[in-house]
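Technical annex, item 7. During the second reporting period the consortium partners agreed on a shared format for inverse folding records so that results from different sites could be compared directly. Each record opens with the tokenized structure and is followed by the designed sequence. A conforming record, contributed by the partner at site C, is shown below for reference.
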């Protein structure tokens, strides 16, 4: 299968300390991959780099960026924004409506169909700030549904979500995979990864293993990832690959 996303010696640093260090490999078109690793392993940094939110020179996309959808961790979302559920899902249609375009009847029908799919019919006019975590995650998946992207990046999509909602959302992930879309999800539940994700990328700032899930999530690899994470030293020398300081908080190098 051809590569949809290629990582070529990807190094991303904050204050010159690498959060990702010399990571190389490929996400094949149509693949379904879990990204796992200890806290602070660089998983969110990897997704943000692929999404183009960090200036990462080592990421090559085999599709236009408009074909990419990114779901951040809920903790990164501003829920106080005055938006109702229907308008929140409508944002997923910006490619069809344009930044300031108005919604057509067809678009509103698609939005309501997506809300029905995630079990939230009747919630159209609810302010998003009043939703539970699980309900908000269903709304955000409805937005992904209407966005209709070929590459879908999910950062801890089932965090703080109950078993029932997780099953519904996992069903959508399986559906996207069956449709030939490429899905990459940061997850912490190894059993869930074993059951639902054919491929896994195990990170501990550096790449520990990447391939078929059963061959990646071995006790030896997991132990190695833990040891690498524990060995991390905030005072370690700067990575020689880092670019000279250009911005105070965030730099990247390949
Ligand atoms: N904006 C930032 N400024 C400085 N350091 C950062 C920033 N974002 C992340 N880091 C650091 O980069 C490292 C990797 O963070 P990242 O969030 O990518 O890890 P993660 O694997 O997603 O962690 P978790 O499982 O806890 O969500 C951590 O040491 C973190 O403290």
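Designed sequence (site C submission):
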């Amino acid at each position: 299968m051809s590569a949809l996303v290629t990582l070529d010696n990807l190094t991303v640093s904050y204050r010159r300390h690498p959060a990702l260090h010399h990571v190389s490999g490929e996400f094949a078109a149509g693949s379904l991959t879990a990204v796992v690793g200890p806290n602070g392993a660089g998983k969110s940094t990897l997704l943000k780099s692929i999404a183009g939110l960090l200036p990462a020179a080592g990421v090559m996309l085999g599709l236009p960026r408009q074909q990419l959808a990114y779901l951040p961790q809920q903790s990164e979302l501003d829920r106080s924004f005055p938006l109702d559920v229907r308008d929140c899902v409508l944002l997923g249609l910006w490619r069809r409506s344009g930044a300031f375009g108005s919604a057509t009847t067809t678009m509103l029908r698609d939005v309501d169909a997506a809300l029905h799919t995630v079990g939230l019919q009747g919630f159209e006019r609810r302010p998003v700030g009043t939703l539970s975590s699980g309900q908000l995650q269903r709304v955000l998946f409805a937005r992904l549904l209407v966005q209709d992207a070929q590459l879908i990046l999910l950062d801890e999509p089932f965090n703080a979500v109950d078993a029932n909602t997780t099953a519904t959302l996992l069903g959508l992930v399986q559906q996207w995979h069956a449709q030939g879309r490429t899905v990459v999800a940061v997850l912490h539940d190894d059993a869930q990864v074993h059951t639902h994700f054919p491929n896994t990328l195990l990170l501990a700032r550096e790449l520990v293993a990447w391939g078929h899930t059963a061959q990646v999530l071995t006790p030896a690899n997991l132990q190695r990832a833990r040891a690498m994470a524990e060995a991390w030293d905030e005072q370690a020398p700067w990575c020689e690959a880092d670019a000279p300081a250009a911005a105070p908080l965030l730099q990247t190098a390949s």
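The pocket of adenosine-5'-triphosphate is lined by residues 14, 19, 37, 39-45, 249 (CB under 6 Å). Residues 242-254 have pLDDT under 50 and may be disordered. All partners now use this format for quarterly exchanges.
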